Amino acid sequence: MKIAGIIAEYNPFHHGHAYHILRTKELSNADYIIAIISGNFVQRGLPALLDKYLRCEMALSQGADLVLELPVAYATASAETFAMGAVSLLDKLGAVNTLCFGSECGELEKLSYLAGHLKEESPLFKEAIQKELKEGHPYPAARERAIASCKQIPGALSSFEEMTYPEIQAILNQPNNILALEYLKSLQRRKSPISPITVARESAGYHDTSIDVQFASASAIRTLYKEGTLEKLSSTVPNEVFAILEKEYNKRFPIYPNDFSICLYYRLLMEKEQNIALHLYQDVSKEIGQRIYNELPYYTSYEAYALSIKTRQYTLTRIYRGLLHILLNIRAKDYQIYSAHDFIPYARILGFQKNASPLLSYIKKNTSIPLISKMANANKYLDDYGKKMLRQDILAANIYKKIQEEKFQVPLANEFTEKLRIF
What is the DSSP string of 188-253? Predict the structure, then answer.
């Protein structure tokens, strides 16, 4: 049995995602496709536009055979931690042969070469990165500048001799390339038997706002939602996906960061009242924590507040992730515990194809972690750290659900009563 894995957010699902699933099947010759997707909060540190169950339905409608949820601690983490969590989950299933991911580069050999040398940072390289960070550069820029400086130092980056700095720079300047490198680093660090495949990103770029292209970006599609023009979306998504959108529009979605404004404000007020050191939360440095408290008297909305905290050194995405981790009570020490226990302790099923029973049976025979299909039974199979991770998932889902219910005035099932999506 050949099984391919995909790691995605589908926020929202569009033609490019359908193309990725199709190309994954073609390139891997897979019998089944497993999609690992973020839950109700995504890697940019923001709530998903659509909840995880709707995005699961969309993925199944376009050829995914099994959809699993990436725990919120990893779904909302930096690119490196996000990738390690997702790769760990696929690896522990003991059944996946290939991992297929998109990239602007599209050249696996070049990406693998660069990943192989970035995964082991020399002391000189680490020192160079710290120097750039102290000068106020955000981490992506600091790493890029450190590579430029270290290529001039014998022994610091000698293993990069086969690539020029402009080649490296071109790769590191593209968001899908960066995630691709992190997937490759994770596979290499785990010594995983999973083989990587990359699909070159077609048409629109990650941040492109045009929809008049073959594959409009998720950013462009999210903009249409904000403008309230659902009809225009019909050309950017598969027909089956649009049918789901039409059915659930203004019933379960769209959800925006500012829908959480009061929720976040209350949380921050309580933290300040109790004099909590905010740098205990993941992605919140002491400097960011101080700025969060300093700007609190001027709080107006989630998005405006994040912009007021942003600095040259800290990207807006980093600020969003820090605020979200405060809201969801995800602390830096949690990641230390999780990494010490090999990252992912369970695989939670969101949905699957009716004809995927051979796949599920095969995974159950080979997996080193439990497959969770019924939340009521989950704790039977988990140790303390697994239970803690699952509680974070449940808390995140409950907060998101309550925002949905208040915004659209509809009752929704909770994590214990929500049914698996079977397509």
Answer: HHHT-SPEEEEEEPPSS-TT----SSSS--HHHHHHHHHTT-GGGGGGTS-HHHHHHHHHHBTTTB
CB-CB contact of 82 with 182 (8 Å): yes
- Determine how β-strand 347-352 pairs with β-strand 371-372: parallel
Q: What is the pTM of this model?
A: 0.93
pLDDT along the chain (423 residues), means of 10: 97 93 97 98 97 98 98 97 98 98 94 86 81 83 79 53 76 92 97 97 56 64 71 85 94 96 98 97 97 98 97 93 98 97 97 98 98 96 96 98 98 96 96
3-state secondary structure of 271: helix
Parallel, antiparallel or unpaired: strands 98-103 and 32-38: unpaired
**What is the identity of the amino acid at 287?**
E
CA distance 19 to 308: 38
Residues 216/204, Cβ–Cβ less than 8 Å? yes
- The 8-class DSSP code of residue 370 comes to P
Buried-state track 184-201, b at ≥16 Cβ within 10 A, e below 16: bbbbbebebebebebbeb
Residue length, the chain? Answer: 423
Cα–Cα distance between 143 and 148 in angstroms, integer?
A: 9
Exposure of 76 in the CB half-sphere (CA atoms within 13 A): 31
Q: In 3D, which of 279, 283, 218 has the Cα closest to residue 81? A: 283
Burial of 38 by CB count in 10 Å (0-12 exposed, 13-18 middle, 19+ buried)? buried
Inter-residue contact 126 to 133 (CB < 8 Å): no
- The string of DSSP letters for 404-422 reads HHHHHT-----TTTPPPEE
Residue 329's nearest CA partner among 259, 391, 400 is: 391
